[in-house]
Amino acid sequence: MLTSELEDLRSKQAVESDSRLEQLQDELSKSADLLHSSEASMRVWQNEAQQQKEQLSEEVFELHQSYAKRLQNLRAQQGGEKRAFQAVEDELRQIYTEEVQVCRRNQEAWAEATEAAFTGEARLARMAVEESESAALRHETQVQEKLQEQLVMLKNHLGGEFAPTGLHPASHELFKQLCVSIEAALCDEVRGNPCSELRRTLRRDLKQELRDQLRSEVHSVRRCREASTGSTTGSSARRVKIASRESPPSAVRQELTRRGAALMEAFTAAAEEVLPGRESEKNYENLCPLAYIRF
């Protein structure tokens, strides 16, 4: 009985072992199939990886070549730019050196010209001062000579007691007063400013005014004489009255007196502004005695 049990147990174990072995063989075959498929996939992956590696290697090589070419071009360009920069720098240095030399020469020439200009300017200034002084002396001499001529003319006009021929006695008195006013005005103006334009303008205006008034007076007297000579009746006193009525001196006298007074006021104001004291008048009297001649 034990033997049968052992045999049964052995047969069961053998069956189990066979089934387990079959199961293991199935699993082993599955594992072998899986391994085979894995090896095939691995080979495919290796091939793909190799292809990608080769492709990447080619791309990297191409990139290396392109970068090498670009680097070579950049180096060449940089070398050209460096040579060009060096050439420009050398040219600029040469230009700067030339400009510095020219500037130094110009500074030396300017210093020489400035020194010469200062010397010439001082000489010209001295010449100008001397010329202005001589011109002032000449002008003062001319003014004194003209003043002397005017005073001599006034003296000649005022020398006689009687009126000139053809001039009314009242007009002669007016003329004497105006001559005295002109003399005083000229003396005052020359005392204040010997080189004044106002003196020349005043003298010219007064002389022209006197000429016009005297011409009109003489013309009026002549007309009166012609009228009185042509008449056959009446005495000399009547003719003088007619002449007086024809040529009344009052209007002329009033007008000239008014203008002379205005001019004298202007000259007096100018003299007070120029010469406020009597000290300058005494000094000018010593310098220009002709201005104080009285007739």
Q: Quick one: biggest sheet?
A: none
Number of DSSP strands?
A: 0
Can you give the helix content as a percent range?
over 70%
Structural class: mainly alpha
Instruction: Tell me the strand percentage band.
Output: under 5%
| CA distance, first residue to last residue | 205 Å
Order of helices and strands: HHHHHH
Mean pLDDT: 69
The general outline is rod-shaped
Per DSSP, the total helix count is: 6
> Mind telling me the C-alpha Rg?
68 Å
Poorly predicted runs are 232-249, 274-295
What does this structure look like?
- The structure is a single chain.
- By secondary structure, this protein is mainly alpha-helical.
- It has a domain at 142-292.
- It has helices spanning 2-158, 169-192, 197-230, 236-246, 249-274, 279-287.
- Helix 2 packs parallel to helix 5 (249-274).
- The longest helix is centred in the first third of the chain and has 157 residues, at 2-158.
- It is rod-shaped and about 220 Å long.
- 9% of the residues are buried.
- The model is unreliable at 232-249 and 274-295 (pLDDT under 50).
Give the gist of this structure.
This protein has 295 residues and is mostly helical.
Keywords:
295 residues, 88% helix, disordered C terminus, rod-shaped
Provide the fold topology:
Elements: H1 2-158, H2 169-192, H3 197-230, H4 236-246, H5 249-274, H6 279-287
Region (Disordered): 1-23, 224-254
Keywords: Coiled coil
Biased composition (Basic and acidic residues): 7-23
